[in-house]
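ugh ok fine here u go
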Amino acid sequence: MSKKRSVYSDFDKFDIKSSQPAVVDRQGKYLAADSALKLRAEGNADERGVDLAYPAK
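structure:
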């Protein structure tokens, strides 16, 4: 498996960065080669930009 396993998106976006499709393709091929493998997808959030996105009323 590739050592580069994380896939990132830009702040406040859901689509992956333009540099990331190769990582997804590489990991997809690895996973497809062995059906016993499992994938865990996680997302993380923080409070960065909260005041801009959800200003207090």
